[in-house]
Amino acid sequence: DDATADPSDAQHLRDVFYRMGFDDREIVALSGAHALGRCHTTASGYDGPWSPTPTTLNNAYFTLMSNLKWVPKEWDGPFQYVDAPTGKLMMLPSDLVLLQDESFLKWVKAYGSDEKLFLSDFSDAFAKLLSLGTSGLTPTEWA
């Protein structure tokens, strides 16, 4: 397999989310929020949508991640991937690491094949995230 992501990012995701009480299933479910919206260079430095339906919460993030070939984007911005067929969709290294870690991959496959399961698990994980509140966050110029 090509080097689509640094496997050490799996541990980074776990470090960030485990300290908030999330497990691998919930990490992958919350990552599915990338089905919504897009990256803007003015906010994150990255550019592009994860899916062609950025205003719809669905399982497209998982199906596209699994079914398309992703190649490094050639540009002056931060390292990211684009889909090989069109170059219009993007993935971050932290997205594609979900394909390289067996525990994460199990849930990518499950959510890619069962949108109802994804939406149910996402709803539960997002409610848990909201219940944590916002204390400890650092304000930015956009917040």
From TrEMBL:
Q: Enumerate the Pfam families for this protein.
A: peroxidase
The record's section on PROSITE patterns has:
PEROXIDASE_1 (PS00435), PEROXIDASE_4 (PS50873)
Q: Which InterPro entries does the annotation name? A: Ccp1-like, Haem_peroxidase, Haem_peroxidase_sf, Peroxidase_I, Peroxidases_heam-ligand_BS
| Listed EC numbers | 1.11.1.5
Q: Has the keyword Iron been applied to this entry?
A: yes
| The keyword Protein transport appears for this protein | no
Q: Where is the Plant heme peroxidase family profile domain?
A: 1-136
A GO cellular component annotated for this chain's UniProt record is: mitochondrial matrix
**MF terms (GO), sorted A to Z:** cytochrome-c peroxidase activity; heme binding; metal ion binding
Q: Which GO terms describe its biological process?
A: cellular response to oxidative stress; hydrogen peroxide catabolic process; response to reactive oxygen species
Provide the catalytic activity annotation. Answer: 2 Fe(II)-[cytochrome c] + H2O2 + 2 H(+) = 2 Fe(III)-[cytochrome c] + 2 H2O
- Alphabetically list the UniProt keywords: Heme, Iron, Metal-binding, Mitochondrion, Oxidoreductase, Transit peptide
| UniProt enzyme class | oxidoreductase
Task: Give the location in the cell.
Answer: Mitochondrion intermembrane space; Mitochondrion matrix
Family under the similarity heading: Belongs to the peroxidase family.
Q: What is this protein called?
A: Cytochrome c peroxidase, mitochondrial
Q: Which organism is it from?
A: Entomoneis paludosa
